[in-house]
């Protein structure tokens, strides 16, 4: 290269088509993403009625029609340009958003991966406008007739991105995701009528309701089992409809969260709601229902996720503690719940400089175990010792560790107390039995031989549409787990058989938890969820806390633990046993 000559530039500005494709990867994940963006636009336009039509799960067609204010020809043409929006005009507008949309990316992103047409007309004019875009090409703008409002048609989604299209799920599953989006919008706006049609047939209709809780009662289909809860803490207001603990589900898919009218996904907020039930709900289980949080707009940031599904709170810990304790006050009387632990920090509106609170205390035996584990690792000489992987692994190299223990008795119908040559052992009978059942199911599955037992009468289990579709999509693989299910309509399945090892379990809870685990692993192959599914099944088919065991049953469980691959913890990671050495006990008692 000649002196002074510059190298060819390596940094270049991307062209608009490529930029739109990149944005589409963030905004348009599946047909349900399209429905979400278009429905939110309809609501921002002041619609009182929104009609959603989909064909083949939305892959062939998504059509969203509204009776909102419509757009002028100039605005309609600009709407398919990136970052063209009527929602915000300055940076400070992001802190006081009163609309669902604000990025100006949705329509151009959708138009870049589909055959797109927008038809719109304002009420005060006699002629409307049509804007057509094919796969991100040039927009074609023309006069058009039509009723006041806006209709957007999205055909052949991902026709020009086949690599994206092949990752879409079965039609039933994609349809179910669309149904979830419409339900979330209906819960957010009780004053709007929503109609959902699939392949020409109306499947859901949410008529205008007088209040958010009235809409939730009608939309969730849980009837009188949902308990209304409401409270205020300063400028924080919470309204909720929550189901009884026995209807709780593995995973939070049955719990709808709305913050300032916006549907959101927030694990910590969902956990705060679950913690309002105290020790009655097992870890990982969440109630069915809806929670509506209203707070000052400057204390919540919605500009943290491309699909606007997540938010960030300025004082999250105070908010979560307020939600837990405020809901518990109502739920405790409705469901006879035990009291919570000591309070954390109060809700201080507008303050984020208060000292951080400690996490809500764990309750029950597992909370004691967690504390004991920390103590054991921090102070090796202090009892009790937690027997778990990485703490005392050599103990589990002895195949007869448990079988050589002398069973002393059962405490609180929950713990098995045993004497060994070196120490006193206390086992959690449910965690121990769960580990044994899981190991047997896992080995049987590996050998393609989980034996099933047919039910005398098939049990009908009501689910949401998404879970019913997931079970239908994976019915053949699930059969390999010994579970036979068949879909019955949009929101139910019939359970015809269960694995022999758990045939006496609660079919409804087994199937709902099975669907929840499949939903969590929806982005991975079925094989990636097998261990989680087997662990859930093992939980349902095992001895539980509160079950009285005979000496023979307890000793059989101890012998069975010696046959599993690793018997120090249950498949969900909870420890099976605590150990106090005789020397530690003697020192504690001053001997």
Commentary on this structure:
With 591 residues, this protein is α+β, with helices and mostly antiparallel strands. The chain folds into 3 domains: 16-206, Histidine kinase-like ATPase, C-terminal domain (Heat Shock Protein 90); 212-335, 2-Layer Sandwich (Ribosomal Protein S5, domain 2), CATH 3.30.230; 388-591, MutL, C-terminal domain, regulatory subdomain (Ribosomal Protein S8, Chain: A, domain 1, 2-Layer Sandwich), CATH 3.30.1370. It is 32% helix and 23% strand. The chain has 17 helices and 25 strands. The strands form 6 sheets. Strands 5-4-3-6-2-1-7-8 form an 8-stranded mixed sheet. It has a 5-stranded mixed sheet with strand order 9-10-15-12-13, with helices on both faces. β9 (227-233) and β10 form a beta hairpin. α14 packs antiparallel against α15. The radius of gyration is 28 Å and the shape is elongated. The N and C termini lie far apart (87 Å). Residues 86-91, 348-391 and 393-398 have low confidence and may be disordered.
